[in-house]
TrEMBL record:
It is found in: Periplasm. It comes from Sedimenticola thiotaurini. Residues 1-39 form the signal peptide. Its cofactor is Mo-bis(molybdopterin guanine dinucleotide). This is trimethylamine-N-oxide reductase. GO terms for cellular component: outer membrane-bounded periplasmic space. Keywords: Metal-binding, Molybdenum, Oxidoreductase, Periplasm, Signal. Binds 1 molybdenum-bis(molybdopterin guanine dinucleotide) (Mo-bis-MGD) cofactor per subunit. One of its GO terms (molecular function) is molybdopterin cofactor binding.
Length: 820
């Protein structure tokens, strides 16, 4: 989960302005009555979501058409799925309770979770059950009994942020008595290591802007990054401006290299040089390039001297003096399967002109994932171009249109969860009584009271007995599904609030139907980085079936816990939206920006902000390069840390104090590899994680009704698999069915099965069951990246594949459970 830090307003800033917000208590009655805030029965409504801003066409109260906002230069093809998600068969219609739970109480027949036996109840009954359970668990097990670290890609919008709303309700209702989570599944390893190395997060920060890259970069390297695919969506409302610049770069005819086991959309778009690296060996390849630079005297010794710390401690490792193994091109070639000659020519090419090393995040979402981005920074330091126009490295060109110049725009605050901003990571809050690294949730359930390490600290796993999940799908996003199913049985109560019958909802005891973001009003930025506009996310249609807004659900729960007023602060939906807008307006006025008043804005639906010439020239680390003494980095030495004394002090066996090649627990052709194929579980081109998997979009990509699995022709031939066959992908952790696509797009030894396919166990609830649709996380391992970051290793894992010859199980997961 990943808000651009530039978008964040800390709670402190927010509180400073509370008096101003208070002053807008008097909202003009004409506005509240104008109908602008209510879904129109007929006509067109401008609104937006992760997929961009769009106009929804409404007929007789039904959403019937969608067309992109005129300001979107490259609308996502997923928009039609967005519309379909509202009416899809997988929609949750009513509050539902698992029968055994309803009849026998919390903890009853937990092994039946996932079997789909639900009973419809009234909203009142459901809310009473939830509130009573929260109280009971809090009273019985104390402030660490409720897990509300609920993670996931919820919907855009500054008010209907269901995760903040959940924690806000528990803050006011249980006095903060709940367990929270830290970090995210996207960049867990990088966001912990980068502050040690660069003094800042990197992953959610503005890049050297695209106009500078287009003009100055000679070689653009996408290292495990597919910006054409992943920039379709944003954390706020996608602007899609990157696509214009990708085209501009392409038009220059300059060199683009894609280092990736898969021939990506980006590689195809640029007709790039494709280096089909063996997965999980990027650190070795980088070391091979670094070694070549050093032995050929092509490294920038002056840059290393002036701007970095600890190269002298890293060098003996690079040269093999500390471990007897020089990290030569030949050494690297043996590991990463890129020929030594090619590694050497990369070293030459990178020094010949301006080189931008643009990395995605898959290479840190793997075992020892901390090392790859640390080594990337080290390599960029040896090239000496950090802080020069078009040179250096970037960790966010592929995400939410990072690198698009930022407009002169005010920043919207949003609903708060009641915690304080965390020092050094202002996008997190310290709400809650305890905290775990987000992807350690299964370990927490397995090992309450057990120790865990995290970034230099040691803490104990809390004893959580109730989990409340909103806006996320852990039965899609978490690894090692079968291990997870067993761990889930330790919970006495599971509450899930969603608008889709996800696998997570199916594994719940109490299921509450939420509205989609198209059934309520909200406000959001367009462009995480470009901040190019503020959008009124207007309600398109009235809530379907018995769906209710998360806000109203939590207000009712807060009331049952005794504190509705503290939750709502007496404000209506529109009053909240106006309060956020007015705060932005005030900022804008203080900085001489031209910000329309709220009434005009809401009527217009969007306020677009100008982009200055200065913003189009931004060079990341330009100021540091210019004056390293006056503009030091936020690291202990004020420099780029190739060696970290802080990490040295932690003394972790799995994260040494300088970037190091470390064997992951399993990798293709690695020592002791038990299975012959690597599973590439990258992000889907046709949906957002699991979102929209239950929509018409699936018709365009499913193979034999299942999630597609791309297999190289050599691997397919060796197993007698043909295009369109149903295959079984399996390892010791699980087994899934998928539909085969035979293609050279994936290198030999690597199969691709996107993350986010809906988990459809043939025997619901039973660990080890065959998954009929294709949830890749049945196959991936659940361990942490290292003691430092404890991130997820979603991209790690080996398996085998065979043609499926048994009786084909039906795919049932895209319909609601029986009777629901
Ligand atoms: P989504 O499918 O987006 O996945 O995991 P995440 O849990 O974010 O789930 C969001 C859920 O929120 C959906 O079920 C949606 O219906 C629901 N929702 C949306 N809006 C609302 C709302 O307003 N209210 C409520 N109540 N619910 C709402 C994503 C995670 O997966 C991420 S970010 C990454 S980077 C990881 N990637 C990988 C990977 O690369 N490889 C593997 N193997 N595994 C991964 N898992 C991670
Ligand atoms: P992935 O697709 O997982 O995306 O952004 P991230 O960069 O993590 O991986 C990018 C590329 O890395 C893929 O082409 C994959 O083949 C390659 N790769 C995998 N393993 C290796 C390896 O070991 N070495 C090398 N060199 N390459 C490797 C994810 C980002 O995308 C995130 S976190 C989120 S939450 C968003 N999710 C989506 C989404 O679900 N769908 C779309 N369309 N767009 C998204 N954008 C965001
Ligand atoms: Mo992510």
């Amino acid at each position: 989960m990943s808000s651009s830090r530039s978008n964040h307003i800390s709670r402190r800033d927010f509180l400073k302005s509370v008096s101003a917000i208070g002053a807008l208590g008097a909202i003009s009655p004409s506005l509240l009555m104008s109908g602008a805030a209510y879904a129109a029965a007929n006509g067109e409504v401008l609104t937006g979501s992760h997929w961009g801003a769009f106009r929804a066409e409404v007929k007789d109260g039904r959403w019937v058409g969608v067309k992109p906002w005129e300001g979107d230069p490259h609308p996502s093809h997923q928009l039609k799925g967005v519309m379909d998600s509202v009416y899809s068969a997988s929609r949750i219609k009513y509050p539902m309770v698992r029968r055994a739970f309803l009849e026998k109480g919390p903890g009853a027949a937990v092994e039946e979770r996932g079997a789909g036996d639900f009973v419809r109840v009234s909203w009142d009954k459901a809310l009473d059950l939830v509130a009573n359970e929260l109280k009971r668990v809090n009273k019985t097990y104390g402030p660490e009994g409720v897990y509300a670290g609920s993670y996931g890609w919820k919907s855009s919008g500054k008010l209907h942020n269901c995760q903040s709303l959940l924690r806000r309700a528990l803050n006011v209702g249980l006095n903060g008595g709940f367990v929270n989570s830290t970090g995210d599944y996207s960049t867990a390893a990088s966001q912990v290591i980068m502050p040690h190395v660069m003094g800042t997060l990197e992953v959610y920060e503005q890049q050297t802007v695209w106009p500078v890259v287009v003009e100055h970069t000679d070689t653009l390297v996408f290292w495990g990054a597919d910006p054409v695919k992943t920039n379709q969506i944003s954390w706020t409302v996608a602007d899609h401006d990157t696509y214009t610049y990708l085209q501009e770069f392409k038009d220059t005819g300059k060199k683009v290299i894609c280092i990736d086991p898969f021939k990506t959309e980006t590689a195809k778009f640029f007709n790039a040089e494709w280096i089909p690296i063996r997965p999980h060996t990027d650190t070795a390849l980088m070391l091979g390039v670094a070694h070549t630079l050093y032995v050929e005297g092509k490294h920038d010794a002056d840059f290393l001297d002036e701007y970095t710390f600890g190269f002298d401690k890293f060098l003996p490792y690079l040269m093999g003096e500390t471990d007897g193994t020089p990290k030569s091109a030949e050494w690297a070639a043996n590991i990463c399967e890129v020929p030594a000659e090619q590694i050497k020519s990369l070293a030459n090419l990178f020094t010949e002109g301006r080189t931008m090393l643009a990395s995605g995040w898959s290479i840190q979402r793997q075992h020892h994932g901390e090392q790859s981005h640390w080594m990337l920074v080290t390599l960029a330091s040896m090239l000496g171009q950090i802080g020069l126009p078009g040179g250096g490295f970037g960790l966010s060109y592929h995400y939410s249109c990072g690198g698009c110049p930022s407009a002169t725009s005010p920043i919207l605050p949003g609903i708060t969860d009641g915690g304080q901003a965390v020092e050094g990571a202002a996008w997190l809050s310290n709400a809650g009584a305890a905290n775990i690294p987000v992807s350690r949730v299964v370990e927490m359930l397995e090992n309450p009271g057990g120790d865990f390490d995290f970034n230099g600290k040691r803490a104990k796993y809390p004893n959580a007995k109730l989990a409340y999940w909103v806006g996320g799908n852990p039965f899609a996003h978490h690894q090692d599904r079968n291990r997870m199913i067993k761990a889930w049985q330790k919970l006495e109560t599971v509450v899930v609030q969603d608008f889709q019958w996800t696998a997570t909802a199916r594994f719940a005891d109490i299921v509450l139907p939420a509205t989609s973001s198209y059934e309520r009003n909200d406000i959001e930025h367009i462009g995480d980085y470009s901040l190019k506009a503020i959008l009124a996310m207007k309600k398109v249609i009235d809530p379907v079936f018995e769906a209710r807004n998360d806000y109203d659900i939590f207000a009712d729960i807060a009331e049952r816990l005794g504190n509705r007023e503290a939750f709502t602060e007496g404000k209506s939906e529109l009053e909240w939206i106006q309060s956020f807008y007015s705060e932005a307006e005030k900022q804008g006025q203080a900085q001489q920006m031209d910000v329309p008043d709220f009434e005009s804005f809401w009527k217009e639906g969007v306020a677009v902000f100008p982009i200055s010439d200065e913003a189009k020239q931004f060079v990341r680390y330009g100021d540091y390069r210019e004056d390293p003494l006056l503009e030091p980095l936020g690291t202990p030495t004020g420099k780029i840390e190739i060696y970290s004394k802080n990490i040295e002090k932690m003394n972790y066996d799995d994260c040494p104090p300088h970037p190091t090649w470390m064997e992951p627990i399993e990798r293709l052709n690695g020592p002791g590899a038990k299975y012959p194929l690597h599973i590439n579980s990258s992000h889907p081109n046709d949906r957002l994680h699991s979102q929209l998997c239950g929509t018409v979009l699936r018709e365009s990509y499913a193979v034999a009704g299942r999630e597609p699995c791309v297999i190289n022709p050599q691997d397919a031939a060796a197993r007698g698999i043909k295009d369109g066959d149903v295959v079984r992908v399996f390892n010791d952790r699980g087994q899934v069915l998928a539909g085969a696509i035979i293609s050279e797009d994936t290198r030999p030894g690597v199969i691709r099965l996107y993350e986010g396919g809906w988990y459809n166990p043939v025997e619901g609830g039973k660990p080890g069951s065959l998954d009929a649709y294709g949830d890749v996380n049945c196959l991936t391992p659940g361990l942490g990246t290292s003691k430092l970051a404890q991130g997820n290793c979603g991209h790690t894992g080996l398996a085998d594949v065979e043609k499926f010859t048994g009786t084909l199980p039906e795919v049932t997961v895209f319909d609601a459970p029986k009777g629901a």
